[in-house]
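In response to reviewer comment 3 from the previous cycle, which asked for concrete evidence that the modeling workflow produces usable outputs, we include below a single protein chain processed end to end. The sequence was submitted unchanged, and the resulting structure tokens are shown without manual editing.
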Amino acid sequence: MQITNILEYLEDTVRKIPEKTAFSCEEHSLTFTQLYNESRSVGSFLADKGFYGKPVVVFMKKTPRAVSAFLGVIYAGCFYVALDEEMPRHRIELIIGTINAEAVICDDATSELIKEYGYGGDVYLYNDIAFSEADEAALASVRDRQTDTDPIYAVFTSGSTGVPKGVLACHRSVIDYIENLSQVLGFDGDTVYGNQAPFYFDAALKEIIPTMKFGATTHIIPKSLFMFPIKLVEFLNEHKINTLCWAASALTMISSFRTFEKIVPEYVKRVIFVGEVFPIKQLNMWKAVLPDALYVNLYGPTETTGVCCYYKVDREFGLDETLPVGRPFHNTSIILLNDDNTATPYGETGEICVKGTCLTLGYYNNPEKTRESFIQNPLNSMYPETIYKTGDLGRYNDRGELCYVSRKDYQIKHMGHRIELGEIEVVVNMHKGIKTNCCIFDDVKKKIVLYYTGDATRAEVAAFTKEKLPRYMFPNVIIQLENMPYTPNGKIDRVTLKNNYFEGK
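The workflow returned the following structure tokens.
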């Protein structure tokens, strides 16, 4: 029988392996029984308060009990909005103002902090609501009312435009996503995840939901370890972690600092990357030490419930190439459109648009933005059919694989030529002295600005780009950084680079 509620994953698993560890961190761990009991207690409390169908903010430290709180919110027939104190203050205040929740679940570390962000509603301490006896009648009543199109979370986008939007996902889209992802990646009960992604981004779903589905285990990696590559790999080995679903930048941080010369992740058999392009040079370093591992490039915006396309690395690539994003998951379709909403000829670049069950419900309390991005399929005038316009540019290669080209925002006109800034970044990554790089365009001075980290001098980088690129693609300004800024979900923070740029910095 097909499931219609993600809680069925947990309820099936707890019957089979009740005492196995589900989630762990430095502070504590939860077995599936503990996860089940505590989440049902939270759900009972919220249900008794009459919060059905409403948003509930979970503002807790990144621990297993935060996962339990998320599930408790769903047990109550509500949808959760995750916050974390590492988020910028203005972002937290904006989300609180947008979501206008009547209830917030906190822990001892965040209960006072939430008031500083302008929240004036009810605050409930996790420890006060998670250990009482579950109200079976209340939970049963909620389950009878729930449908697979009920929202279960709102994830706020990174806000590259400065205004984050709350993306609502439902049971149906999450189940479709997890079933397809699990089949492609071969998850099972022996899978041991090392979680890197923050809980307030949908990237963490790749570990949280399959852990419940298969009775797997997720270890929450301390954020501090991502500053110390050797200690990070030691953590992976200590916990026998075999599956990494990480941002490409986190993987690059390990390989670019020659970590593998001292220590190798002994148990890793799946290396899954998402968020940004994984440079071929760095991928090859991983493949050299883990030649038998499965390497998979994932693609998809938050609006498509996690990711919607995958590519299993099945061949060698030149340093001047980028990995394809491959093909869509089962039950998902990709359409490429021109600016006039006509179909893009095969092999040419167009905007990536997505249709299928994977589509989320839209943006919370933002019908205007929802209408702009979730549109009627312009290639179908016969019946209602929604597609999501990603704002990403893509094309098909001669193997029939979808390739990400760049954001539409990163396509510029310079010296009479249309340029994809990502093409410059690919070439720069080929230099042996480059660790990471990012190009932005100064709209006022009409200059291409290249930021990079690594041992290469600016003169060496300039000479290399002049050798490899046509004149109209030369960076006008080259700036070496000690550290590249990143957003919390592991992408290069282009907004910070652009806002803080001045020539000669």
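The domain at 418-502 is CATH 3.30.300.30 (GMP Synthetase; Chain A, domain 3). We consider this sufficient to address the reviewer's concern, and the full set will be provided in the supplementary archive.
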